[in-house]
Amino acid sequence: MTQDSDVQQQVLSYLRHQAAKGPADLAALIERTAADCARCLEDVSEEQAAFRYDQEWSIKEVLGHLLASVKGVNREIGNLVEDRPSAGEARMGVVSGAERAIGKLRQDLARLWRETARLAASLPEAGLERTFEHPMFGPLNPSEWVAFQRLHAMDHIQQMETIKAHPDYPRTSAMFLARVYVTLKPTVNDPQGLTIRGALHSLGFADVESVRAGKYLEVRIAADDRGKAEKQLAEMCRKLLANPVIEDYRFELEEAG
């Protein structure tokens, strides 16, 4: 019980600290939350979003719960600010979303976070004494409820990351096309470039002042996501495609059709 009480006090301290910063900072907090959610859901497929293990929620169910909760809390914040009676909308236990496509859930959540950021930015600087009861943390005022949206979302982002880390989580590979450009470092002599320049001069292109030779490669990579493809490609360049002692490299990466 003491441990639960300590956690409760830590959460309340966080909520009050964030709430004291003002509407603009609260709106920025929600925008960061939206970006964190987007990163977590990037490249999640329909199969992955529906994956469940034991009695845990799927990613779709987590998102359904999050959508219902954020929407309900936003309504209660509006009721508090406008001095309207509570509608009992902050439903913490609602689970839905399994029937919706992951793309639609992703879009709906992004839109809802934009609405939440606008709501946070519109809060008055003062006069927010009215509260609405949280089942665990007690009465919270509108600013504290906005801060709670961040805390609640981060808890579920961690939940989704745990799902993604499960050994039975479906792994899907995308195909990426990399365009790799390798050139000699500026301080390294380029005899091939000098030879090409001499040949161009002999052909009448006297205005050519210098030539630096290099190589261009196209590499197709199957990877779970863009970040992993970039990591693989950088390692390939360091170990084989370029000589890091005398050569520089850069690459462009795009998802192949």
Overview in brief:
Helices cover 53% and strands 14% of the residues. With 257 residues, it is an alpha+beta fold.
Question: What does this molecule look like?
Answer:
The protein is of the alpha+beta class and 257 residues long. The protein has 2 domains: 2-164, dinb family like domain (Four Helix Bundle (Hemerythrin (Met), subunit A), Up-down Bundle), CATH 1.20.120; 174-255, 2-Layer Sandwich (Mth169, Chain: A). It has 8 helices and 5 strands. The chain has helices spanning 2-19, 23-41, 46-50, 59-81, 102-121, 142-164, 191-202, 226-241, and strands at 132-134, 138-140, 174-184, 214-223, 247-255. A 3-stranded antiparallel beta sheet has the order 4-3-5, covered by helices on one side. Strands 1-2 form a two-stranded antiparallel ribbon. The longest helix is centred in the first third of the chain and has 23 residues, at 59-81. It starts with a helix and ends with a strand. The model has no long low-confidence stretch (mean pLDDT 91).
List keywords for this structure.
alpha+beta; Four Helix Bundle (Hemerythrin (Met), subunit A); two-stranded antiparallel sheet; single chain; three-stranded antiparallel sheet; 257 residues; Mth169, Chain: A
What topology emerges from the helices and strands here?
Elements: H1 2-19, H2 23-41, H3 46-50, H4 59-81, H5 102-121, E1 132-134, E2 138-140, H6 142-164, E3 174-184, H7 191-202, E4 214-223, H8 226-241, E5 247-255
Helix pairs in contact: 1-6, 2-5, 2-6, 4-5, 4-6
Pairing-aware structural class of the strands and helices? alpha+beta
Tell me what portion of residues adopts beta-strand conformation.
5-15%
Ends distance: 56 Å
Our Rg estimate from Cα atoms comes to 27 Å
Task: State the CATH topology of the largest domain.
Answer: Four Helix Bundle (Hemerythrin (Met), subunit A)
Overall form = elongated
Number of strands: 5
What is the highest CATH level, the class of the largest domain? Mainly Alpha
Whole-number count of domains: 2
The SSE order reads HHHHHEEHEHEHE
Mean pLDDT across all residues, rounded? 91
CATH superfamily of the largest domain: dinb family like domain
Helix content percent band? 40-55%
Poorly predicted ranges (pLDDT <50, ≥5 residues)? none
Instruction: Tally the helices.
Output: 8
Biggest beta-sheet profile: 3 strands, antiparallel
